[in-house]
Amino acid sequence: DHWVSCFSISMASAVPPLVSASWLRSSLSTVRVIDASWYLPSMNRNGKSEYLASRIPSSCFFDIDDTDDVSTLPHMLPSPTYFSRRMSDLGIDGSSHIVCYDGAGIFSSPRLWWMLRVYGHHRVSVLDGGMPSWLSLGAEVEKGDATPPPAARSPFVAKLQPELLCTLDQMRTNLDTGAAAVLDARSKGRFEGTTPEPRAGLRGGHIPGSHNVPIDTVLRDGMMKAPEELRK
């Protein structure tokens, strides 16, 4: 597992950002697994339906579309109170090692990974290759309605880490200063505005001065490329 070996775990609370399916299978009883599958409308897939049809045992489902209580815009960061309640409802507390996965490989699960880190929970990893990687092992799956998760030992308390979040005002300032590099992980067509946006009413193009690093350029077969490849 090249990703696990790349990180020196010097503290008991530290966990690698990526874990393999084989690691997860051997560690399933010690972690909390969350399916964070979400798909663009053009993909014609439904994360919750796929979760009910086939999922990693004991996993729960996190609906990325049902997290916003502060804005009418899609996928904005929820308030600390709202996010704390959502995590507590899933049986997550501050000591949990969480492994996020999705049905596409690596697509929407890093969003939940980031949200947890923004709110101060660093014991979180992404399953490299997601559900396809799990299935490739021939590992066990559950189907049908899920058993409610066990209650959290203590309430989840979200604590905002502002250094991991950039506001609209900060982005506007950066247009003038160029102090921070801005990366856009969307496809080249969406970045250049030559491909229609998958959501109605959205303009094409990109933030001025940003750089395009399409997500598929850092993946191979739905899994993250090795560090030495990414450095190139």
TrEMBL record:
The keyword Repressor does not apply. One of its GO terms (cellular component) is mitochondrion. Residues 1-21 form the signal peptide. The keyword Signal applies. Residues 190-215 are annotated as: Disordered. It comes from the Eukaryota. Residues 27-143, 176-232 form the Rhodanese domain. Keywords: Repeat, Signal, Transferase. CDD domains: TST_Repeat_1. One of its GO terms (molecular function) is thiosulfate-cyanide sulfurtransferase activity. Transmembrane segments: none annotated. SMART domains: RHOD (SM00450). Pfam families: Rhodanese (PF00581). PROSITE patterns: RHODANESE_3 (PS50206). This is Rhodanese domain-containing protein.
